[in-house]
Amino acid sequence: MTTEQQQGTRMRAAVAYRFGGPEAVRVEQRPMPTPRADELLVRVHASTVSIADHRMRSRDLPEGLGFLVPISLGVFRPRKPVLGMDVAGVVVAVGDEVTGFAPGDEVIAMLGSTFGGHAEYARIPQSKAIARKPAGLDMQQSVALVFGGHTALAFLDRAEVGPGDEVLVNGASGAVGTAAVQLAKQRGARVTAVCGTRNVELVRSLGADRVIDYTSDDFTQNGETYDAILDCVGNAPFDRVADSIKPGGALLLVVTSLRGMLRASRDSRRSGKLVTASGAPVSHERFAELSRLADSGALRPVIDRTYDLDDVVEAHRHVDTGHKTGSVVLHIA
Q1: Which CATH superfamily groups domain 151-276?
Q2: pTM for this one?
Q3: Which of 152, 207, 233, 274 could form a disulfide with 171 if both were Cys (CB 3.0 to 4.6 A apart)?
């Protein structure tokens, strides 16, 4: 498909022009994007409905972060009407400055804060995390690795998790948690996973050495200590888990409140332990690791439910419950 052929054509996309509940999202026709010189145009086969989509649509931010709504989400309406932070699909066109990808390539990509994945076509800057799709997985399985895998990579790299490290993943059954358990284990760490009763066996099957059911046990009260604690829930601030972190260890705040963000640097200085709400940059090479590990069998996607694009409202309703396991996939193509 040439750029000339794309111009003037339309595509279907899920959009939200107002803040609100799941019913704020609808499917409509929109102009198909045209890639700039440094961008790829991808025919999207699948994306996921993530917690980030929930936040952009509902204006629901962690405690204390409401002041960021105008900056990160929008003033009167969602800043990015086409949601979707990840895609799996096929490249249909590339700009003149793009190298390493060509039309016909099957790819996965993390769009991040630019969103745009809940549409039949997405324009993706080459600077974004983009890699070949795992050869052994279909599009829906592949996209289920992206949001959680990218986030888990960023935070595990930030703490330089490696062989022999003791790692605890709090919230081990979500998109980030299921990826973090597997990626930490693949690096040679000993992994303790915290989740609810119904997901204990799932998380154990992902390779966790020990699983703690939070409904009956509090991991901060058992005297165990860890080289790194990855908090994917937002209920493990430094004050609560400080004694569970080994000297020189790390608290990785994937989800946190304003108080947690503001105190991270101070807590790091005073304790000698790394406390951070941001991960390390994920290069193209590091992102491609997700595909390699998936093809080797060391990383498997966890899919809660799959919805067609026309059922995107139901997908949002399920994510809004806060009890999804792994990823909620949106089938688009």
Answers
A1: NAD(P)-binding Rossmann-like Domain (3.40.50.720)
A2: 0.92
A3: 233
